[in-house]
Amino acid sequence: MDIMNELTPKRFNDIDDMLAFVSIYDDENRLKSYKKLLGDNRSEIKGKVCVEAGCGFGILSEYMANLGAEKVYAVEANPLLYELALERLQKYPNVTVVHSDIRDFQPDQPIDVLLQELYGQLLYDEDIYVLDELKFAPKQVFPNQAVLMGGLADSADFVDECVTLSVLEKLEDCLVSGLFDDEDVKLLFPVINWKYKISNFECQCDLAGKKGDLLYFGLQIYHNDQFICQAGECHNWSLVWTPRAGDKFSLRFHPQKRGTDVLFEWLR
Q1: CA 25 – CA 117 distance, rounded (Å)
Q2: Could you tell me which of 79, 47, 76 has the C-alpha nearest to residue 59?
Q3: Measured distance CA(116)–CA(93) in Å, rounded
Q4: What count of other Cβ atoms lies within 10 Å of the Cβ of residue 92?
Q5: pTM of the model
Q6: pLDDT-derived band at 83, boundaries 50, 70, 90
Q7: How far apart are CA 28 and CA 200, in angstroms?
Q8: Sign of CA dihedral 63, 183, 252, 194
Q9: Considering the chain, what is the average pLDDT of its residues?
Q10: Gap between the Cα atoms of 51 and 252, Å rounded
Q11: Coil, helix or strand at residue 214
């Protein structure tokens, strides 16, 4: 969904964020995976004080409330999403909707569980870094691990009348999400990891000995080493593709005030 007319930068960003959550919640596999994560850990939710970072429409905050949380803070910085969450959650006496950036949120009681979904398609390319800047220390973060995986394929198995070999040649050094169908594409090797409190904002990867002229990346999400979901299965995270132009590449992420800059380079 794209906004087609001119708006002030602030209103554009607010509506763009709101529309992003429409597509996030439209990913049934993603929502089911997160609810399963919470349901499997209901003993860690019931009677506990919980926070959802970037609650969007408040669907998962509502789920934690229904699991018996003593208190849920549904924290949302976007004013439009805050109003939607407030409308949804007003019937729950154990939920407080907070209009705040999660980095500015200072609860007046200890937090048992922080629920977050701040991953980008390349793991670090959205807002996962903000978890290093919290003003409170949750006892647990759900989910607490993720891996950016990679793979190599033969372009001949993917090109068609639209995305031809000639088109791929023009995309050298470009990381393109959703370029090809993600179905049945296997994620083969780890590229870069994240664990709560352990972030790696750059890596180098050596593909020597690996076959394939088409490189792709995909996110995998875990909690305590238990698999939660991954790109391709949850369409909120598409695979990211680029034609291979060497055996080594570097991938670096520079967090900004809004989002993260991604720097990708083949090392020749």
Answers
A1: 12
A2: 76
A3: 22
A4: 18
A5: 0.92
A6: very high
A7: 30
A8: positive
A9: 94
A10: 30
A11: strand
